[in-house]
Amino acid sequence: MSSSRGPSLRELTVQALSSVEGGYDRLAPKFDRSPFRTPDGVLEATADALRPLGPFGRGLDVCCGTGAGMRVLSSVCQEPAVGTDFSAGMLAQARGAHPQARWVRADVQALPFAAAFDLAVSFGAFGHFLPSERPSLFTGVHRALRPGGVFAFPVFALPPPTSRWYWALLGFDLAMRARNAVWRPPFVMYYRTWPLPAVRDDLTASGFTVTTVPLTALGQRRDGSPRYRLVLARRADSPADRGEPAP
């Protein structure tokens, strides 16, 4: 599950029986040595895909955790970046690792920013949001971006039913639903609740124009499709941005 210096099974169990915020406050000192930190390969592939679209001005890491996404923002943005998360423990770790950035504790479904950023990114956090919460999350990011700003995040292709990973992820999600049905506070973490077509629809409804690019460096599935895609959601503020005829 993790390195010898990472969280123990007992610590992971305590996290799973806590609220999302409380669990991450507890896990924060060892989070970067756990299997839950976004792999460096995903960060590097994302930066490589964004670099031709930049350089960007100011960047925002949404649900920043301990700040792994700052590696991406610092490589493609010209101004110091901002990270936001609701876990004080995770933000404390991020401040220590990236003192050059600004860190803001906030509920990402009510981001306290307006037209302040040219690029927003997010890594590994969306399993903590139910489908019904996507619109408020996306609307807040849209509001935080400047006209023409981009919201970028990687998504992985769900494995086919013939894969053991399909059943492992399904089993995990069912176990979490059972846990949340009988235990309070809930710990929201699901792997199968953000399919790309539904995410694309919700981004479009929130005012974005959406494209995706394959992250080929992260490999392919057996059918030749990419294992990961990078979603590029651009803030649409004019009829031309939305692909509509000008009045």
UniProtKB/TrEMBL annotation:
Gene Ontology biological-process annotations: methylation
Pfam families for the chain: Methyltransf_25
Domain Methyltransferase, residue spans: 60-149
Annotated keywords: Methyltransferase, Transferase
Xref: CDD domains: AdoMet_MTases (cd02440)
Gene Ontology MF, one: methyltransferase activity
The name this protein goes by in its record: Class I SAM-dependent methyltransferase
Organism field: Trebonia kvetii
Source taxonomy: Bacteria, Bacillati, Actinomycetota, Actinomycetes, Streptosporangiales
